[in-house]
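User: I'm preparing a small set of examples for a lab meeting where we compare how different chains pack in three dimensions. I only have the primary sequence for this one, and I'd like the structure in token form so I can line it up with the others. Please keep the answer compact; I'll paste it straight into my notes.
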Amino acid sequence: MPKSNRRRGRKDRLAQETIVDTNPPVWPGVAGGCLKPLSPSEVTLVEETALSLLETLGLSQAIPSMVRAVTAAGGTLSDDGRLLFPRTLVQSAIAGAQRDFFLCGQNPEHDLLITGASVHMSTGGAAPGIFDIDTGLYRPSTLADLYDAARLVDAMENIHHFSRPVVARDIEDNATMDINTAYASLIGTSKHVSMSITEPQNVQAIAELCYTIAGGEAAFRARPFLTVMVCHVVPPMRFAEDACEVLEAAIKAGFPVQLISAGQAGATSPATIAGSLVQAVAETLAGLVFARLVDPEAKAIFAPKPLVADLRTGSMSGGGGEQAILMAAAAQMGRHFGLPTSSIAGITDAKTLDTQYGAEKTLAIAMAAHAGSNIVTQAAGIHASLLGVSLEGYVSDNDLIGNILRTIRGVEATPENIAADVIANVCRGPGHYLGEIHTFDRMKSDYFYPHVGDRRTPVEWQEDGARPVGDVARDRTRELLASHYPNHIADETDIALRGAFDIRLSRSRIGRSE
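Assistant: Understood. Below is the structure token output for the 514-residue chain.
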């Protein structure tokens, strides 16, 4: 077959794969939870130690409204200014936390049911750099890069949730950056979006932007499509005052929230995996108590995300086995408490789409997902120890994540799937399964097929240019960036947003007429 025909065949296959499959091999919310790196006694020890730390050590730098709420509920402010949380208060917060809720998309087909050990894959990172698709070099990330990341994720069926992956470094003012981060993310994808907000005074503007898109405040509160991620602590065991004010304001405005503790083992949390886990669990539970005191109906996600350092240098190291097992254990604690849980996984230390990239991502994502984390952030695109993102990484990682989701789905040994009757018929008949209706019926429902991963023979691959998967992903990324401009937000709404806010992306940049 001539090269041109082979390449055309590959493009045709990619085009066909964009058609929605009514019986897919993997899906958002496939159930994990089988991996349990902590023994039952270890789980009990982690829980007991976290409760004891909250009760006897507590956290410093609590904001006044938190002190009032917690002390009114039975807590104590110690003489040295540490807010102490009695275990009954923490246990009550765990027991009463919201469960089994949707993280809504602007398009309801992207609603994510956060329940049990359902697993959803997400971007993330807040990286300051982008791996430029044209030069192959790192450069400061921009608002346009953020928008491009959102619309790529919008087209990736195995990336279910868009968490802001890069910082718009071409915008210096925090308030303007926050509003444009929300706008670029929400105009770029109709999937659920998560972002942080730099200052409490910026929360209301983000809320008003969301209310406008939703068609009113009541409509947004009924179906909130943006979560506010809050690192409410500055480890060890100290509240971040501005972030706590953001948390309070976001809950009151109707946003779901992620409660994030991100200590670094050996630097801002203990060097041991167990110690880092305990501290992160305690810090995150403190945030949950406050969130529920602000609003008992708050949709709050338990997100202990402790990180690991390379203790030879002190630099963050996200690609090692220590990070993978730490995140799996954190997810297991979320499952133990029965709380909606988010983990950080996939933050490879690799700088490009190479063997290190694939190996480190697969290890960490698979472990967090098999442990039952409801939202696995940083699962796509991010690399260079959270310092960079590659757009083509989303296309490549869509395959990687699809394969991981298929492993989470499992073997499914049922009387029907065991297929004893099929085995008997084939053995008495043709001697192979290729022509069986059973094989045809299951070829799509049971098997995940990669979009850019190459399964051709070496000869075919060589005749087609012997291109590595990164080059193929890069071409597919360019095709999508040239054609995929989501239009789920109506023109009149977009124009209204531009009249109300300082929107920096031009209409032409988002594929609209000026």
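A couple of notes for your slides: The longest strand covers residues 226-230. Residues 1-10, 13-19 have pLDDT under 50 and may be disordered.

User: Perfect, thanks.
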